[in-house]
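REQUEST ID: PR-0412
SUBMITTED BY: lab tech R.K.
PRIORITY: routine
TASK: structure prediction, single protein chain
INPUT:
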Amino acid sequence: MIAIVLTLLVAAIHAYITALEMLLWETKRGRRIFGTTPEFAAQTKALAFNQGLYNGFLAAGLLVGLISGIAGMVIFLLICVAVAGIVGALSGLRRALHFQTVPAALALCAMVLGL
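STATUS: complete
OUTPUT:
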């Protein structure tokens, strides 16, 4: 049960990131969260939209894996999320480690331990 709740949390985080990147990229909120200027946000809007789509795929995949009971799919996607957070942190977005890697690692541990 803990693994399911944590995995749902990870999916919700990625759904939120999807909204930020696809819909709110150029808003004050989006720029504040990602630390961008209005000019940079305007120039990178298409890239952020595409990136948001991939975050949406992660969220959807986690939900499909949970609903269909395919543990291997959920584990694989949680690993992908954890790695994405590490890459995000190494790319200068330190918060990615806290908001992506840590929840994904906790969900992954709970799944492996059968919690």
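NOTES: The radius of gyration is 15 Å.
REVIEWED BY: pending
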